[in-house]
Amino acid sequence: MRPVEDDLDVYDVVRVDLPDATLYGTVWRVEADRVQVRGAAGEWLLWVDRWRVTVY
To answer: Is 10 exposed, middle or buried (0-12, 13-18, 19+ CB in 10 A)?
Structure first.
């Protein structure tokens, strides 16, 4: 695992550390300060702050 820097790509598998949960998913979209992550089989789609994401 490694913290996200500038090399985050769509379809990378990531871990998202939220205050109340840890989620695993696939990067769907990348913006300068946030990332959209999709859960397995499309169960959820969530925008998160980039600093919460770790490439898994």
So the answer is: exposed
Question: Which parts of the chain sit beneath pLDDT 70?
Answer: 1-6
**Which residue's structure tokens are 């499309």?**
42
DSSP 29-52: EE-SSEEEEE-GGGS-EEEEEGGG
Q: The whole model's pTM is what? A: 0.86
Long-range contacts of 16-23 (CB under 8 A, 24+ apart): 16/46, 16/48, 16/52, 16/53, 16/54, 17/52, 17/54, 18/48, 18/52
